[in-house]
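In this section we walk through a basic example: taking a raw amino acid sequence and producing a predicted 3D structure, encoded as discrete structure tokens. The instruction is simple. Fold the sequence below.
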Amino acid sequence: MSGTTRRLVILGSTGSIGTQALDVVAHVNALHASGLSPVRFEVTGLAAGRNGALLAEQARRLGVRRVALREGGVDGDFDARWSGPDAAERLVRETECDIVLAAMVGASGVPATLAAAELGRDIALANKETLVAAGSLVVPAARRTGARLLPVDSEHCGVWQCLTGRCGNVPPPFEAASHVRRITLTASGGPFRTWTREQMMNATPEQARRHPTWSMGDKVTIDSASLTNKALELIEAHWLFGIGPERLGAVIHPQSIVHAFVEFADRSTLAQLATPDMRTPIHAALAWPFEVGGVGRALDLAAMSALTFEPVDETKFPAVATAREVMRRGGTAGAIFNAANEEAVNAFMAGRIRFPAITSLSAEAIDAIPTTIVESVESILDADARARAWVASRAG
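The resulting token sequence is shown next.
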């Protein structure tokens, strides 16, 4: 990093997290220009999946000369461009930067995020699937090189902020101190919180996309409806904070104001509160270690009528129990779970399976496909492919 300028590569710039990150960049840079921020951002690279038109527009607007697109091409005058399945990884390896925002959806973000960790670059991690599938590769790489894994998920950002007050301002990955008794992530419960399992049998993709509190992309929203998103987040917390399933939990909180609880050995509990606005954790990750005025909405305590909590019904939402099994098994279990879920979500969106089958197929895949030791990215990709094929063969 040169002076107060932080060079930033954004993976997944055209998606929900990527576009909101650009809001944060513009906000912080405006504060810096006014003398109100000690840091400013220079975006040096952008990567997207298939929206080449928006990617080119973002690059022109920001003066970015290096772009990558997984599918299709990008029109425009650029110093460097990459295309194909390894485009994002090549962008990371061949572009100078200080921090990588990893916001690609699903397992496709694993190689590029691992590359950033191997190069010792800080990672603002919004792609939870990377740690779910490849935590045993990414975390050791980050520890070897000193790369920081700065959590962008609101829940993990909340845990990190709670731990900062009692354990020091150290970014993940780290092992939570022994006096951290339990970490609890909150879940809104999604659009089907009050539905019976029988009602969910007839749920449509349109209904599953109607999240009550958050505005997110389709995949994450569907995962939130099945609570698979919370299952993935528990596994991510396991890797970020070095904590086992016996010290991790989830609770339903429909208002999405409290994002995490951390209970300590003295039986005190800290909670982190914020409005349901993803720009807040994005800002916290990108600006760290600086405290800079945020772009997200402030929390109006006087306007809140109630904060309610309820246990997760694991009969209706079995994904949380599956997450505990994934953590116990280790190895390629995370890659199998993640890939099976992605394939099942695609099948549901295409009308080939009913909504509850998303979580049942994901759990069954873990039992059907042998778990092996993770030795390389290839072992992750092999487990991913086998899980997708297994689900596809049963999804009709």
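Looking at the output, two observations stand out. The mean pLDDT is 94. The domain at 5-147 is CATH 3.40.50.720 (Rossmann fold). In the next section we compare this with other chains.
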